[in-house]
Amino acid sequence: MSKDWPLWEVFVRARGGLEHRHAGSVHAPDAELALRHARDTYTRRMEGVSLWVVRSADIVASDPDQAGELFEPAASKVYRHPTFYDLPDAVKHM
Amino acid sequence: MYTTELDKTAGSAAAPAAVEDPALLAAFEARVANDEFIEPKDWMPEAYRRTLTRQISQHAHSEIVGMLPEGNWLTRAPSLKRKAILLAKIQDEGGHGLYLYCAAETLGTSREQMIEALHAGKAKYSTIFNYPTLNWADIGAIGWLVDGAAIMNQVPLQRTSYGPYARAMVRVCKEESFHQRQGYDLLLEMMKGTPEQRAMVQDAMNRWWWPSLMMFGPPDDNSPNSAQSIRWRIKRETNDELRQKFVDATVPQAELLGITVPDPDLQWNEERGHYDFGAIDWNEFYAVVRGEGPVARERMKARRAAWDEGAWVREAAAAWEARQAARRAAAA
Ligand SMILES: [Fe+2]
Ligand SMILES: [Fe+2]
To answer: Which branch of life, at top level (chain A) (predicted)?
Structure first.
């Protein structure tokens, strides 16, 4: 068993109005230190205005082997896309 | 940088090839050939995992050990400005090490294992850091040449096939340009100084040029794992290709500085459109790989000391968390 501190995933909001995006991860014993490490590791050059950290172990991820079935319905339902509908040229901008 | 294949035994022909499921292997090969990224939870051949773990962890170790020769000069920087710049660069290198350890961890080796391997002398790091930094111009030469070589190597790695490694490289590359420019700027300033200062710059060049060329690793015809790494898109360019690019880019910069390249055979080859350069002393390279570099012992001693002397900080942080956890439990 590793004596490493737990791993935390780091998310950075680059500026107001944008979503938080995954930047990387840090090891830290607790959330407060995880934030501090995230600040030093991922925002040395004004890369962000807000940070989230979340224990990596708490992330639930989809299985890459199932990606085909999981995302397939999107490909087979072409009518969900605007380009599926062939409208007369007289209808402009719709 | 520092992605050179240094360990000549592990993972090469010596290790028995794992028997992989041919269908999975074929699907993997097709994805890689199609320039798709492989992510941590995707299936991958054992040899791919092993090669990447070794390459990324060596790269991480090099960033960490690379802080030591520069750290030696922090208290002797000639001005507050240069000290602040050097401190920021060293902090970046620490950050590069952390990005890379994280990427390597996604392949299933713990941080602790990697750090223990480094401290036990079992893991390799770039040969370049086993040379001493003797004068202040060395700090400029490291930024210009060593980080310059690192950039050459790392830029194509932004498209390496393993997603976490590629993303770490994007982050690293954004930061490297400052490293090289501050080094060149430092040397330019010294070249405007006294004859003694100019001599220091030339002396640094004389000592760092050849080790910098060696950073790209053994020549292609003596680089057994290269072909597989290229096929798997772990590496995107060969050692010799990158070395040639570095020479072509750097020689004009040396001319602009007003110093000479310590290579009597260096000559522009009109036909090839590249510089020809002299033979590299590979015996020296392999000696340094074996740990016989001028300051190899000193580097590992300093690295272990930094780790041991920082233990109380790690212990205090862990004790604090344990106490907080106990309080939370009592309150619940
Ligand atoms: Fe670096
Ligand atoms: Fe650097």
So the answer is: Bacteria
Task: Provide the CATH topology of domain A7-84.
Answer: Ubiquitin-like (UB roll) (3.10.20)
pTM confidence score: 0.90
Cα B71 to middle of ligand 1, angstroms: 14
Which CATH architecture group holds B22-293? Up-down Bundle (1.20)
> What are the DSSP calls for B75-100, one per residue?
GG-SSHHHHHHHHHHHHHHHHHHHHH
A41 to each of A44, B95, B97, B114, B186, how far by Cα in Å?
A: 7, 5, 10, 19, 26
Closest CA to A53 of A2, A13, A3: A13
| Contact residues on chain A for B112, CB-CB shorter than 8 A | 2-4
The answer to ipTM > 0.90 is no
CB count, 10 Å around CB of B247? 21
Q: Is the pLDDT at B292 greater than 90, yes or no? A: no
Q: What's the rounded Cα separation, in Å, for the pair B102 and B111? A: 8
Q: Does A45 touch chain B (CB under 8 A)?
A: yes
pLDDT tens sequence across B77-90: 999 999 999 999 99
